[in-house]
Amino acid sequence: MTTVPGRRSSTFTRLLRHGFTDPAAAERLLDLPALASVRTDPVLLDALGATADPDLALRGLVRLVEAEDADERQMLLDTLVSAKPLRDRLLGVLGASEALGDHLARHPRHWQALVMYEATDLHPGVAEFEHELGDARDPDTLRIAYRRCLLAIAARDVCGTTDVAETAAELADLATATLRAALAIARTAAPADAALCRLAVIAMGKCGGHELNYVSDVDVIFVAEPVDSSGEGKAVQAATRLAAHMMRICSETTVEGTIWPVDANLRPEGRNGPLVRTLSSHVAYYQRWAKTWEFQALLKARPVAGDPELGAEYVEAVSPMVWQAADRENFVGDVQKMRRRVVDNIPADRVDREIKLGPGGLRDVEFAVQLLQLVHGRSDASLHSGSTLDALRALAGGGYVGRVDAAQFDDAYRFLRALEHRIQLYRLRRTHLVPEGESDLRRLGRSLGMRTDPIAEINQAWKRHTSVVRRLHEKLFYRPLLDAVAQLAPGETRLSAKAAGVRLEALGYADPAAALRHLEALSSGVSRKAAIQRTLLPVLLGWFADSADPDAGLLGFRKVSDALGKTPWYLRLLRDEGAAAENLARVLSAGRLAPDLLLRAPEAVAILGDPQGLKPRSRNHLEQEVLAAVGRAEDAESAVAVVRGVRRRELFRTAAADLIGSYGTEENPAELDHGALVDRVGNAVTDLNAVTIAGALRAAVRGQWGDTLPTRFAVIGMGRFGGHELGYGSDADVLFVHTPREGVDEQEATRAANTVVAEMRRLLQLPTADPPLLIDADLRPEGKSGPLVRTLKSYEAYYRRWSLIWESQALLRAEPMAGDAELGRDFIELIDPLRYPMEGLGEDAVREIRRLKARMESERMPRGADPTLHTKLGRGGLSDVEWTVQLLQMQHGWVEPGLRTTRTREALAAACAAELISVEDAQTLDEAWVLATRVRNAVMLVRGRPGDTFPSGPRELTAVGRYLGYEPGHVGDMLDDYRRITRRARAVVEERFYGA
Fold first, then answer.
1. Are 522 and 562 in contact (CB under 8 A)?
2. Does the N-terminal or the C-terminal CB of the chain have fewer CB atoms within 10 Å?
3. Would you place residue 987 in the very low, low, confident or very high pLDDT band (cuts 50, 70, 90)?
4. Residue 274: strand, helix, or coil
5. Other CB atoms closer than 10 Å to residue 451's CB: what's the count?
6. Which SS3 state, helix, strand or coil, does residue 81 take?
7. Per-position b or e across 206-231, b if 16+ CB within 10 A of its CB
8. How many CB atoms are located within 10 Å of the residue 886 CB?
9. How far is CA 11 from CA 45, 60, 165, 816, 843, in A?
10. Does 1 have pLDDT greater than 50?
11. Under a CB-based contact definition with an 8 Å cutoff, are residues 781 and 790 in contact?
12. Phi/psi of residue 517, each to 5°?
């Protein structure tokens, strides 16, 4: 074929038009002598152009023709151009599968398997495949026969003769026939073993479910019994040898390649268990030891080879246990763990290309269907199917899944399976990754009928279907629950109240009847509000179920909705602001504190929809708001009511941000820097309480003296308040200091100061809907026996003459919080020499501090408390870390400016920077302090009241674990980790504090 130099031939142009990406190479192939008789035949070019990859199809055809004997070659080419069925099937396979092209090049006569299609050829079953494999006598001949059958299945698939479900069923039937043939070969090789035992092969997974891939492990379980009274032990040993040989026949690689791995890891005890068991041994294991996922796997159990009676006995024995799995005590916890997608082991660069395990992938569909089967199949035998699509149809028919949702799920699943089939067919390799290369994507798209712009179309279709699966995955569980309490159109099938309760219970709701009442109250009716609720609730229910207390979440949502249902913005916020609904669900179901704060003023829910809403307000901003509100109020009571309302709103903001940061959301993962979370809470609550005290002080002064008190007055924060380390339930430890104004008698000034303090405390503890702020002044000189308020001169005299070492230590946390700023600075200037003594501490002072600490450990630990789990006074807890740091501050603060801080973590970091403590020891102490602080915060968030130990109730303990990042079922790990971390901290304390 000659052309004018520089001008393309007409063949080149036609090849481009027919979809060839390398027309020059294709032109050279067509010029080969092997294709001389057909190179100009337009029928051939049209057929090649109709394949998924015309270039690949042409290369495969050339290899096949060249591999044929000369006398057979022309018959192949004549049949190819004259018989359209063969042409479509053969070229379709060659254009979709490089691996099957290789097979045809090695076994060219196998093209004849595609010539004739009788009625039985169109839908072959196990019997037909057994016939095709019947002459196999060894692993190599079995592989050759298997590939010949696979060639025919692929041909029917790529030509559209069978759909994806039929193709998967044919592949499962071929696997069944192959296992039988392999077992026959093994039995022939060891007739003595075969005579000793009855062996049944049970297919599991996709093979058992009649939905196998082109390349997939074939999951099996083996069960055996003795033939006679020859002995169970010998029979099991013989069966084990037969089973292992059968597995090798299928799995090993020979000159003819491999078939597929046979995987027996779904057996009892997995890889650690015996390969073969008797029926009674299987039953005993499942009755006593099996986990929920093992019963889920048994949904697809199907006898496929060996002794058919024994296989049937096995299924009959285990089937009742499968359908009783939902009654197991730990079913809910197992389900919650199973529902969380496990993508952590998928490399980050592959997650978005995974069509099996990735978000919106095949596993989502299969798990959703299987879970619903386990929940409802115990009372409805129509759901007892191993096939995903058959089970999905049965679920829709029974009203367990909405019909529209089921249809969309079915469509998405079929597309994803077809995509998976085509990806694996190319090289017959086990993979679930969508390729990235343009040529691969182009072939994939064309193989699925996308011809206009196959790359763009395949990407769009894939993303669309995974999006559908992700969207429906939760709705599939919860939409029918709403239908169960709604008015349905005539003829529609609903989930019965009993079935709805069963499903709610399986998903973690402790009181399904109450949950259904809430759903009915929220979603019944024809109003626009009810319609929006019906849209929101399926997703919200899933988020509630993902928490430690779904019932509390749903109840809280009903209360908030009842309070705000008539406001126009509430439901619109949840519907339109993507993060608001999920944030609300997390907050309502994580414990008692945040919902209690929200329900006292439900309009604070707006915070959850504002992108900046969860960020803490600055102290200056809050102080301006509070003091302006006090200035507008008519009296002190109404002024402080506003102040406490601001505190409640900001406490909710802080708690919500903490919970959402700790739990994470679908868009934003959980905060990994736990120290940052603790610091944010401590700073926010400290600023909030300081502003609240400032507001109460202003209100108390205005109520009696107007704008000016007869004495200058300051509030000094102490303890955690001064250290910016307050938790949600902490009191405000303070000292009160005043200095009479010029010309004012000291006694009058002191009376005024005491009156202000009494009024502040009264106002902040008035019984209202807002949480009180308790002011604790017990750290003052002389403790409870001393005056509540002192002048600066009185403090100076006391500290100069009477101060004890523990008081100097307590002053390490002193920081002005409200009132006269200059007086506050004067107080700090007064106490600095006490808390950071020149030349540090003497030996007697260090000995006294250690004695006080030891006494506190022995006397103040609550009776019956576990010292390894007490966050404040326990081993390696807050007290241990803080006293160690404070000792370093008092010893070295006079020369190390970084140590002159009220904050524990800052002082510890400064000590490390000054090489007063090793990096490793500092990290150990910091980790323990942060963890103990988070536990205290978690207890308050979960229980709504403060506590220094882990809660004893399982639901509350699980909720604390979720806040700390532990999945359900891992409470033991949480307690073990706490003990381990604090034990290491205590070892550092023994060395650094006690000098051990």
1. no
2. C
3. very high
4. coil
5. 12
6. helix
7. bbbbbbbbbbbbbbbbbbbbbeeeee
8. 23
9. 10, 20, 40, 90, 101
10. no
11. yes
12. -65, -40
